[in-house]
Design goal:
globular; 4 helices; 8-stranded antiparallel sheet; single chain; 10 strands; alpha+beta; 20% helix
Length: 194
């Protein structure tokens, strides 16, 4: 993974338990999500990016952080698959001019892996071990569509679960250029199609 991809993963990663970058209006709806019981068939992520950037195939992940009392915290990443059907965009706000929205769902294989992880957490709970589980969204890999100099690169990330029933913004209009580390790494992103 190139330098900027690592930086973007850090910038875009969002742990729902730490709501520092979550819009205040989203917090009550997101607080209802229970990673241990949410219906994975309804789990959706959408990223709104400026047209200068595009996520690479397999570049968007759902990170699940689990913590069992007395053990080290573990992060497991699950691949999100881009959805191309118009119905998959239902409920998403129209992107502003110069932006595109990319909706995702869990791959079938990773939905099964997530179910196995949840079952393991439930089993440990039955054995008296306290634990927690949190969800995060990370865009791990991007490509550049053009070489033009950008004055801003606003990113919005949405999440939909069986609890929220519609897309809720978890990060809204975060300008990637506002972070000097991210802005400094933009030159290292490859052109799309390479």
């Amino acid at each position: 993974m190139n330098r900027l991809a690592r930086v973007l993963a850090s910038a875009a990663a969002l742990m729902l338990g730490g709501c520092s970058s979550v819009p205040l209006t989203s917090i009550p709806r997101l607080a209802r999500i229970d990673a241990k019981t949410t219906d994975l068939s309804m789990l959706r992520v959408a990223m709104q990016l400026p047209e200068a950037l595009r996520p690479r195939s397999d570049g968007v992940r759902l990170d699940v952080v689990t913590k069992v009392a007395g053990e080290a915290e573990m992060k497991t990443s699950f691949v999100m698959v881009e959805m191309s059907d118009a119905r998959d965009r239902a409920g998403l706000p129209a992107p502003p001019r110069g932006s595109s929205t990319y909706p995702y769902r869990l791959s079938s294989a990773d939905a099964a892996r997530f179910e196995a992880l949840r079952a393991s957490m439930v089993e440990q709970g039955k054995q008296g071990k306290r634990g927690s589980m949190g969800l995060g969204v990370a865009a791990k890999e991007f490509c550049r569509v053009n070489e033009a100099q950008q004055t801003s690169l606003p990113v919005t990330i949405y999440l939909m679960t069986s609890e929220t029933k519609s897309f809720v913004p978890v990060v809204r209009d975060f300008d990637l250029l506002s972070d000097p580390t991210v802005a400094g790494g933009l030159e290292s992103i490859d052109r799309c199609g390479k």
